[in-house]
């Protein structure tokens, strides 16, 4: 049997296997049921469901989604869920049954969520992507992706639905936390690192998984910041901005891609032939698998309303280039009938099935479909990975304000009151797409500070004060009492993406959260939770204002999934620390920063406005967009690239190796950076480019390079960048990349609004 011969070329094996398959078996490869519905976990034993066995008998199952996932959508809890070993054993039971009870013995593709850690009980929970972006440390993120791939593959997961490469344009959008930020260049750098980290040197390695790029494309530019809303974007911006990170990741070898829920100029991405066939497969040469988002095909007939019914939607999707449907309902129900009735050519099904099989061969699933329970038990949630999570969380923390050097705190400086709804609620600091974890595994800010001060727990007082949401102030009295006894107050406030709330608050088709008035829900961020405001929810601001009246040094720590706009806090707090959702080690990392064991080096990848009325406020908007409103200017409160340190950095001697270059030439840009303070620290050196005059309008500045450098006190370093066609080009009038002759300004500095500048001329070619 050629398809079982691993010495044969993969494409030959896939074509041979396809030639042996019935139409039912081909369609079976294109569907992906929910994995948690394939088994029951009773008294520590795994029993496969009869419905799953029937699916195998009726033609097979191509893939399963979320076998190892646990959250309110799946109904899998800490008590009913699978340990790392049990998860691997469950995957093995599923694979063994599918292989031994199907005619051709085709293994199943196990797909899992892994945007900031393998979404399974016991797995390491790293900081959310918004925090990962804030590290500006591509190498560290790549290392994290290697760890995530190892944990996932050890338990049998072979493909992950990450990275998220959406460019954020309106942070009211609940999925802002899942993104790296607002800049396509930076996202592209992280995208390449993600593919390299997740996929490793070879997809068939025991520590590699296939990366799925999402959401293709424009998902972060939805109307009003509403999830899956329409996108109003011209073709040039689409090519130049939103498609850039995807192109970079495809060039890096990404194996899979997921179209977005949204429409662009009236065409849903799920059926956008121009994007899927023209750009992705045609221009970029992508030869991997395309899988829908959950329920996206159903939306074509009930949401977008571009299809008459489910069959029409399924046919439109597969003809546009979709290979697999996440959830499997529309493909499973309608493709067989569509082919037999002549509505759909079987060759289209063959093409999709071939791509699915090819990915399985590349992953080595025909040679090794089974997980290693011993290895899963060893590597998932390991101490080594926890240390990595702590390091990343520390590098992603952004110091926004530090009046009169109130930070870092001294470990011998009296009593500290740790107050706020996010001070000691571990699940609130993990972010969306996180399985529940044992309380002992997650270190909160309170836990981190107490650990830092060691044998003096009486020096750390605690009160939650209030919830994230709701108008109850019954906790104010205790919080004020704690603050009165303290020398310093650390307020830990922000938001929550924890999906631990009541029945009826989850979309059972897609898993997205639903906005509800449930008083027990503190969730104010995450998928499906979009907001009118960027202010703190509930009475958190009032709590801070009451405590401020006591006159104690006030440090505000934000734990949240989108920017917070609170002018009063910006003005009155002595220090402001933006930690985003920092993951399981977040409490330790925050304490490391507060007490100076880590010198903060995080920098913003998303602009924080003064007021929600300034939106959109992303830094690289067009120069023609105006400079002010009646009430204030259009500048954000904290600009892109901004972040403070406990030391100072000086920039000088910016130089460009050539005064002028040809359109296809390049020049070296160097700048001298000196640590002028008395502490070691890391600086993110950022390079921006301005095209002074162009045929097509351009942003005032665009990020085109960055380096993170560690400097000892008094140390200087020459930091070097290369400027060439990749950094100078834009999409011209003919929608092709062009480097236009003329004057460019190269800017290098600590953030977008604080740079040195030098001129570069591009000569006629």
From TrEMBL:
Annotated coiled-coil positions are none
InterPro entries (UniProt xref): Cellulose_Degrad_GH3 (IPR051915), Fn3-like (IPR026891), GH (IPR017853), Glyco_hydro_3_C (IPR002772), Glyco_hydro_3_C_sf (IPR036881), Glyco_hydro_3_N (IPR001764), Glyco_hydro_3_N_sf (IPR036962), Ig-like_fold (IPR013783)
What are the alphabetically sorted keywords of the record?
Hydrolase
- Gene3D superfamilies this protein is in? Glycoside hydrolase family 3 C-terminal domain, Glycoside hydrolase, family 3, N-terminal domain, Immunoglobulins
- This protein's source sits in the domain of life called Bacteria
Limits of the Fibronectin type III-like domain: 683-752
Pfam families xrefs: Fn3-like, Glyco_hydro_3, Glyco_hydro_3_C
UniProt name for this protein: Beta-glucosidase
Q: Which organism is it from?
A: Paenibacillus vini
Lineage, please? Bacteria, Bacillati, Bacillota, Bacilli, Bacillales
